Amino acid sequence: MPQKLLTLLSIAGSDNIGGAGIQADIRAGSSLGLHVVTALTSVTAQNSRALVDSISVPSDMLKNQLDAIMEDIVPDAVKIGMIGSVENLNVISKFLDILPNKIPIVVDPVLYVTVSQPSLLKFELDSLEIRKGYLNDIFPKATIVTPNLDELKMLTGETIPSALTLVKLHAKAAVIKGGHAKKDQIEDNLLIGGEKMIKVSHPRINCHNLHGTGCVYSSFIASYLALGFDIKSAFQATERKMQTIINKSCFYDLGISSYGPLNINENYQTGS
Ligand code: PLP
Questions:
Q1: Is the pLDDT assigned to residue 80 strictly greater than 90?
Q2: Residue 227 Cα, ligand 1 centroid: separation in angstroms?
Q3: Is the CB of 213 under 6 A from ligand 1?
Q4: Which residue in 89, 145, 213, 231 could disulfide with 171, CB within 3.0 to 4.6 Å?
């Protein structure tokens, strides 16, 4: 009797240079042995120097993709990345309402797209409506949310952002990724129910190929949850995996500004 193939559903935008977005999610989920099905929310035109254009997929089309998947395949976990528009946010919110309860949902809020170096060139996706939608309609339905410090600041409106505000008011659990703090020691914190806190701290690895780190991180957590890990073990496994991958991502260049993708499958080939 054939066994069921474990599946990750990624709802995200396309990054045409393959570092972030749905392309990163497919590579991350596949590297852990999952089949990845996708619902595309937006299409970006970008390279390692600039984001040239971005357009959101019409919300009817997003709904059709999700309906088509669900008629056929029930995913073992869902990862939500770039949403693209308020209309898409509403479609996703309704989709989460009909999703069977046991399916883990990981939400990585994408409030801006970074190209080149983080925070040098940003394309803002943020609006009050999107922020409110994340907080009130999407986060409460998530198993875990994974903002970075900048996104946390934007979402909570606090200059010194409090992760507890986010978790207490809106989400069941959150990983607050500390990589955007200008510190040599990076701290990532897991909060569950606003109570437990597990801190993982590690020295910053000076690597230039970090495009899509947030997408990969959240896809790994979703994949580990799909594989049956609990939240704490999925967080710890993801932290270990990210360390290994970032360490193996420093030896190649891609593109003019050399802000390349992570070496997810650990076997990139280089040429002259
Ligand atoms: N989603 C898309 C389609 C993107 O192009 C990007 C960045 O380029 C992101 C998400 C966010 O990427 P990161 O994981 O680097 O925050």
A1: yes
A2: 24
A3: yes
A4: 145
pLDDT of 9 higher than 50:
yes
- C-alpha to C-alpha distance for 82 and 51, rounded to whole angstroms: 14
Query: Is the CB of 113 within 6 Å of ligand 1?
Result: yes
* Average pLDDT in the chain: 89
- Say how many Å lie between the CA of residue 184 and the centre of ligand 1: 23
User: Tokens in use for 168?
Assistant: 């207490």
Tell me the mean pLDDT in the region 2-10. Answer: 96
The DSSP annotation for 80-92 comes to E----SHHHHHHH
State the first-to-last Cα distance of the chain, in angstroms, to the nearest integer: 48
The CA–CA distances, whole Å, from 265 to 135, 140, 208, 210, 258 equal 34, 33, 17, 14, 19
- Please state whether beta strands 105-107 and 77-80 pair in parallel, antiparallel, or not at all (unpaired): parallel
The residues, any chain, with a CB within 8 Å of residue 45's CB and separated by 6 or more, are 16, 51, 52, 53, 54
Which atom of ligand 1 lies at the shortest distance from residue 22's CA? 3
User: What's the mean pLDDT in 6-21?
Assistant: 96
24-65 pLDDT, tens digit each: 999 999 999 999 999 999 999 988 888 888 899 999 999 999
